[in-house]
Structure formats: structure tokens, C-alpha cells
Amino acid sequence: MNEFVQLSPEVAAARADGRPIVALESTIIAHGMPWPQNLETAREVEDVIRAEGAVPATIAVIGGRIRVGLTNEELQQLAQSPDAMKLSRRDLPFALATGRLGATTVAATMICAHLADIAVFVTGGIGGVHRGGAESFDISADLQELARTPVAVVCAGAKSILDLGLTLEYLETHGVPVLSVGQDNFAAFFTPDSGLKADFRMDDADTQARFIRAKWALGLSGGVVVSNPVPAAQAMPREEIDAITAQALAEADHQGIQGKAITPFLLARIKALTGGRSLATNIALVKNNARVGAQLARALQKQA
Ligand code: PSU
Ligand code: MN
């Protein structure tokens, strides 16, 4: 194991016993959801994974080490630290060198999961090409990571704060397959349907696992996106979320919000503008992804 990586006792035991492990990110805890729902959700998501017969490994940088599997106290520390850094690929060495507390994005969590030999990672939504990205070059490092690091990322697609069409084009160019669960189209986070086709519909975990094993057996490095739509009963009305997204984007533009601050700003504004209802949808979709991710980890383990 890499000198910077430290497994928790629960994760180390799972590894020793050959049980399936599912990685979880921590930016969603520190920057994606407000206190105290962030902590409650982090714990509930871990419990969904355990109930499905896998072991959760929430990842963060604490005390100069990449920690794979956190205690309840550590989850709480992240949930209550507004100054936790948001760590993507470029930022990881800084947090390790300085001992700063850091929450990992999709990109950084993929890197850490791969260092810990974990193949499945569950999140809410991936980053993507921002609207106007062709001019601003604001393209999340998550997409580059998906192109290079072999981890399957289970998500509810990506938010329509992004340009979802350009996001799918970028993934295609970089050879990142997008599998869709239960429907043909790519999911749009708060709503099930982006109106854009995913590459392959694959409803059951065994088929997803065979696809992923075949990709990696061919030496095709890089990740796989598993797009799992939010259940209809918990989705937001599309017209409402579209209007609110447009307003939040206009405010970000007006206030000159830039760089890595854009995504947390938009998430917080959308929550406020929906009177907190978007948060309930966000929580529901992450739990739904945890179930699918745990089943995928089990299927991969069985086929190994
Ligand atoms: N999308 C969400 N919730 C989130 C994020 C994205 O719906 O919490 C977080 C993830 O950690 C993702 C990161 O990796 O934002 C992307 O940030 P950026 O666009 O700055 O790359
Ligand atoms: Mn960005």
C-alpha cells in the first residue's frame, strides 16, 4: 500500500476477508450539503452499503494521510469544518504536505480509491463541462480522471447547472463509457431524464460487472460512469428545477464566482431557492446510488 494511504480497521478487515468495498467521496459532506443533513446522510449512505452486503470506505485527507474509511467522529469533523479544502487531483499533494483537512471530489476520490485497490465508488453527481465551457475552459477535472483512472463511478448523472450534451461529448472523446440503469437516457441529477441518450443501458449488476471486467481486461484504462436516475417519486419537477438553475447561474455570473467555488455556490443557491426541497431529492438519490454501487461491488467480487 502507498505510504500516504491508511485503511480504517473496518476496511482493512474487509480487504483481508475478500469482502466487497465501496468508496465514497467527502466533498459532498463538506461542501455539497448543509449541516446537519450532511452528517446524517453520510452515515445513512454507509448503512445502505452495509445492508447490501458491502463495506463502505468514505475517503478524506486528515492529518497528512489519505484516510480510507472514517470513524463517526471523523465524519462529523468533516461535516462541521467549513474550512475543509475541496481537493481535486492538483490539490491532493498540498493537503498531504501541509496536514490540512481535505474533502475529496470525484476526481480525487477516484485516485485514492484506486491507490487502495477499490473498483467501485458511489457519489451524487459527477462534475462536467460547465455551460459556456467552450469559452471559459471550465471543465471539471472529474472528466479527465474518468479518462485515466480505472474506477467505476455510480452517480445520478450530472446536474443541469452543467452542459450535459458537452459533458457526454467530452466523455466519448476520452473513451469513457456511460452505462445507464433502468432507462436509456443519461440521468440529470434532480430529474431522471436529461433527454440525452447514454451509451448502453444495463439494468443488472452482473452485466455491468462483466462490462467493466472486459474493459479492464483489454487494458483499456480509465473509469466507467454508471448513471442511475433518481427514483421518480423523489425527483424534482423539471420546469421548477430548470428555472431555479437558470437563476442560480445568473447570480453566480453577476457575483463573479469563479473556479472551484462555482459548484458549491450553485448547490447552495439551488437548495435555498427550492426552500430545501432539492436537498431531500439529493439525499434520496445518493442512497439509491449506494444500493446500486454495493450490488455492483458484490457482482465484481463474485466474478473475480
Ligand atoms: N455535483 C453535485 N454535488 C457535489 C459535486 C458535484 O451534484 O457535491 C462535487 C463533487 O465532489 C464533484 C465536484 O467532484 O463537486 C466537482 O467540482 P468542480 O466542478 O469544481 O470540478
Ligand atoms: Mn471548474
From TrEMBL:
Gene3D superfamilies named in the record: Indigoidine synthase domain
Catalytic-site annotation from UniProt: E25, K159
Keywords associated with the record: Glycosidase, Hydrolase, Lyase, Manganese, Metal-binding
Residue numbers binding Mn(2+): D138
Enzyme Commission number(s) of this protein: 4.2.1.70
Cofactor: Mn(2+)
Top-level EC class: lyase
Co-factor: note: Binds 1 Mn(2+) ion per subunit.
Record: residues binding substrate: K86, V106, S140, A141, D142
Top-level division of the source organism's lineage: Bacteria
Alphabetized GO MF terms: hydrolase activity, acting on glycosyl bonds
Reaction catalysed by this enzyme: D-ribose 5-phosphate + uracil = psi-UMP + H2O
Pfam families: Indigoidine_A
Job of this protein: Catalyzes the reversible cleavage of pseudouridine 5'-phosphate (PsiMP) to ribose 5-phosphate and uracil. Functions biologically in the cleavage direction, as part of a pseudouridine degradation pathway.
PANTHER family according to UniProt: CARBOHYDRATE KINASE PFKB DOMAIN-CONTAINING PROTEIN, ZGC:136858
Subunit structure: Homotrimer.
Family to which this protein belongs: Belongs to the pseudouridine-5'-phosphate glycosidase family.
Protein's name in the database: Pseudouridine-5'-phosphate glycosidase
Species of the source: Roseateles asaccharophilus
Gene from which this protein is expressed: psuG
